[in-house]
Design goal:
The chain is globular. Helix content is 39%, strand content 17%. The two termini are 22 Å apart.
Length: 125
């Protein structure tokens, strides 16, 4: 997918704590995605509840929030940082669930944030 020039600041949801069977692969994928976004000149804002991941290294994102992965936390970060896009697919099921909650209650639309990687309709299926 070619880069859309109206994307300037992306909020990336990390995968949270590493559990058996999930998260290590999301941490690796998230790290690569953050690098690629930064190489394209985009500002990356990362939220992850796990400080012991590669993603939370200070070179991976312009701003890093080590916070609980909850709807209230994401709303507060979106209100403060004003990203134009949200990349939730790197957060596994947690990221997808959170993005769906934000989309369904109209919060993303209210703040002009669009989902990257998967639409709410696709996630809902």
């Amino acid at each position: 997918m070619p880069l859309t020039r109206d994307i300037k600041r992306v909020l990336v949801i990390g995968s949270g704590p590493i559990v058996i069977g999930q998260a290590a692969e999301f941490d690796y994928a998230g790290t690569q995605a953050c690098r690629a976004l930064k190489e394209e000149g985009l500002e990356v804002v990362l939220v992850n509840s796990n400080p012991a991941t590669i993603m939370t290294d200070h070179v991976m994102a312009d701003k890093i929030y080590i916070e609980p992965l909850t709807v209230p936390t994401l709303k507060r970060i979106i209100q403060k940082e004003r990203p134009d896009s949200l990349l939730s697919t790197l957060g596994g099921q947690t990221g997808l669930t959170l993005s769906m909650q934000l989309a369904k209650d109209g919060f993303l639309e209210k703040y002009g944030v669009r989902l990257l990687g998967a639409t709410p309709e696709t996630i809902d299926k």
